[in-house]
Structure formats: C-alpha cells, structure tokens
Write a structure and sequence with these properties.
This protein is mainly alpha-helical. It has 5 helices and 2 strands. α2 packs across α5 and α4 packs antiparallel against α5.
C-alpha cells in the first residue's frame, strides 16, 4: 500500500517532488553573417547592410540584445529580429517592460529605431 511505505522505514516521496524543474537558459543568438578567410584571418561581414533590412539596427546591437535576453531567461533570435518587424517589436517591447539592468535601456533604443523605420515604410 502506498501510505504504508513510510511505516516500513522508507521516507516519503513528497520531499523529492517539491523540487522545481528548471529548464536551461536559452543561448544568445547571432545574426546572419558571411564568413571568409583573407590572409589567414577570419573576416565576417553582413550580407545585407542594416539600411536595407526591415529593422535597421546594427547586428552587434541586436546580438547584445539577444545576449542580455538570454541572460535573463528569454529567447531573442537575431536573424528573426533583423527581418521580422512584428517579432522584433514584440521582443523589444517585452524587454522594455520586464527586463532588468541594461536590457530595458537597450530595448528602448532599439524600439525607437524600430518606430522610425516603421514610419518610413508607410
């Protein structure tokens, strides 16, 4: 019988069940870059310049944003933010509302950039 297990010298299963399962933190994402070798050195460049993408922010700023989001347990994919305006706006707004430390400040800057780009598309 289940409850009789305690009387036979075995401990209860409840202390084991109260531990909360933690999922691993998401990894930071990196943007779309072209990698080449020149004179024995690795050279990375952006295949599409920032002024030609829907969200006109530098990949380094988007990568920093992704790293800060991952550090706080939330995913943010750089390639998707660079080309998907709806996703980028949602991630920037979320980080501005609930982020801690440097994240809300960077999110506000990126959100301002996102709004300027939105007004230019119309």
């Amino acid at each position: 019988m289940f409850f009789g297990a305690v009387t036979r010298g075995l401990s209860s299963i409840f202390p084991v069940m109260n531990s909360r399962h933690r999922r691993p933190l998401p990894l930071p994402s990196f943007g779309p870059r072209r990698i080449s070798f020149q004179d024995g050195a690795i050279v990375t460049d952006e295949p599409v310049p920032s002024h030609e993408r829907p969200v006109q922010a530098e990949l380094t700023r988007l990568e920093r944003f992704s790293a800060l989001m991952a550090g706080q347990g939330w995913p943010a994919h750089v390639s998707r933010m660079a080309y998907d305006r709806i996703y980028a706006g949602e991630r920037f707004g979320f980080a501005k509302r609930v982020g801690r430390g440097e994240l809300p400040v960077l999110a506000r800057q990126l959100l301002d950039c996102w709004r300027v780009n939105r007004s230019q598309l119309v």
